[in-house]
Each structure stands twice: as C-alpha cells, then as structure tokens.
Amino acid sequence: DIQMxxxxxxxSASVGxxxxxxxxxxxxxxxxxxxxxxxxxxxxxxxxxxxxxxxSGVPSRFSGSGSGTDFTLTIxxxxxxxxxxxxxxxxxxxxSTFGQGTRLEVK
Amino acid sequence: QVQLQESGPxxxxxxxxxxxxxxxxxGSISSGGYYWSWIRQHPGKGLEWIGYIxxxxxxxxxxxxxxxxxxxxxxxxxxxxxxxxxxxxxxTAVYYCARATPPSSSSAFGYWGQGTLVTVSS
Lengths: 107, 122
Fold this sequence. Notes:
The complex is a heterodimer.
Chain A: E1 4-7, E2 10-13, E3 19-25, E4 33-38, E5 45-49, E6 53-54, E7 62-67, E8 70-75, E9 85-90, E10 97-98, E11 102-106
Parallel strand pairs in A: 2-11
Antiparallel strand pairs in A: 1-3, 3-8, 4-5, 4-9, 5-6, 7-8, 9-10, 9-11
Chain B: E1 3-7, E2 11-12, E3 18-25, E4 35-41, E5 47-53, E6 59-61, E7 69-74, E8 79-84, E9 93-100, E10 109-112, E11 116-120
Parallel strand pairs in B: 2-11
Antiparallel strand pairs in B: 1-3, 3-8, 4-5, 4-9, 5-6, 7-8, 9-10, 9-11
C-alpha cells in the first residue's frame, strides 16, 4: 500500500493567515492526489483533485500543487469557515489511501 | 445534483454480518463512468477506503478487509451495498458511501453520503 503522510498533524492560525499543509507519498503517485476538508459530524468535501484542479464551487483561496511524492495544499486569507480537518488521498493505485489528517485550529 | 444516502442498522452484534445500502439519486449508476465506493472512519480517526464497484459489477476491495467484504450493485434500484462479515469492536465506525471519478481522473470522491454510525457491541 502507498503510505500518505501529512504535516503538520495540527496547525493553529488566525483569520486572514496563509497556511500550507504538506502531504508526502511513500512512492511516486504522479499527480493523482486529492484534498478534502472535513468538519465535525460531516462527510469530507472534495477541494482539490489531481493535485491542482479546483473542484467546482470551492473558493479560489484554496490551491494545490505538487507531483511525484510531495504535494501541498495552500489556503490564502483564512476564513472562519476554513477551520476544519484536511486530508490528502492518493488515487494512483488501489487500495486508495488517505493521510492521517491535519487539524486546522483557531489561534 | 447527485445525492447518496446510506441505510442500515446502527447496532450490530460481534461475529455478525453488517449490511449497508447506499441509495443514489440525481444520477444513474448504470450510466457508467464512476466508481461507487465505501469508506469508513473510526471514531476520532482518519479515513479508510473499503472498496468500490463499477456499474458492470467489477469490484475492487481493500486487501486488509477483502476476506470479509462483499460489495454489490442493483442498477434497477440505483443502489449499491456493502456486506462486512465476522464483525468485531474494531469495525465500529462511521460508514460512508461515495462516488469516485475513474482512476484516470485521480479517483476523487466528489460526492458523499452523510455517513452512518455503526456500533459493534453485544
């Protein structure tokens, strides 16, 4: 299985901040990397697919980059509704695997 | 707008078999192009992909669960189902159904059900 490792595991930030979350794959996954946002008690929401494509309806302050083994999710100008847990997921091979999550908290 | 809704028991006894169904609305499973998936999340933990099925019946299972899983599809009802056997407390989780894009499109889970909490306890 391909292991996905996110860093940091948790992050404190303030409204208006720019934050970056990193995801590393245990082997090359080309650009087959997706990012999700999950709020308590809710299903995950797809933000970014194929490393850098913004899902329809997702605000442009979210962006993704990377290829191979290293990927980043960047949120510019944090909004109050952005405080949540973020997961990466590789879609390169089965079994599909997720990172352990990054919890973004209010500073 | 595609919507997915899980249904099934919230409480199951150890050693029994869990049966969950996902009803899809706003889109037809038999149209093809997508993989209909099950994902679970243990309480307070991360996400675990269980497996998915294509409208044709082709299945892909997580090897860690493969011996205990069956995923099936009923295109006439626009539903797909999960059976997980030999349950233990470790199977207690929120179970989600979701729609995945093809592997060539990164297998992204763009639509999810609301999730259903399944507790395994006697």
